[in-house]
Amino acid sequence: MHDEFLCHVTAYGTCDGRRIGVPLGTYRAPTLALALWWLRDRASWIAERLDPSPDSLHVPSHALVPVPETVPDVPGLLRAWCADAAQQEQVADELAGGRLVRVAASDDTTEYELLAESVDALRMQRTIPALVLPVG
Q1: Could you give phi then psi for residue 122, rounded to 5 degrees?
Q2: pLDDT tens digits, the chain, 136 residues: what are they?
Q3: What CA–CA distance (Å, rounded) separates 134 from 136?
């Protein structure tokens, strides 16, 4: 059983023609349940910042405008992922099996990525001998 999980949230964009990643948070979860909770919390956090409620006290009146239907709905995708029990169960099964989980959503300018992996699986990978090939 995998007992500890390393979780990351990163936003990727393009700057000067290069793909740049901006870390938005990291959490070392002591349990599977806390890893899942943190991923959902961060997905909700991103969604709220990209698409705040018009009634929010932090948003001046008339500051929000609707976007065209052609713009990808990253906040909607992230909120739907958080609410989908089947997807949450699938993520839990993958993590419990020691596999890396990546959830990503993109709009025209940015890709938002949530990653989680078992600390035990990372440790086990380090003990496997590296493949070494002679060159030339």
Answers
A1: -65, -45
A2: 568 999 999 999 999 999 999 999 999 999 999 999 999 999 999 999 998 877 777 778 777 788 888 888 999 999 999 999 999 999 999 999 888 999 999 998 999 999 999 988 766 665 555 455 455 4
A3: 7
Question: Which regions of 30-130 does DSSP assign to beta strands (E)?
Answer: 101-106, 111-118
Q: How far is Cα 131 from Cα 94, in angstroms, rounded to an integer?
A: 26
Q: Rounded to whole angstroms, how far apart are CA atoms 103 and 94?
A: 12
Q: Which residues in 49-61 are b (16+ Cβ under 10 Å) and which e? A: ebbeeeeeeeeee
Residue 64's pLDDT is 79
Is 116:101 a contact under the CB 8 Å cutoff?
yes
CA distance 34 to 27: 10
Residue 60: HSE in the Cβ half-sphere, 13 Å Cα cutoff: 2
Given strand 18-29, what is the order of strands in its sheet? 18-29, 5-15, 111-118, 101-106
All residues at 6 or more sequence positions from 66 whose CB lies less than 8 Å from its CB, including other chains: none
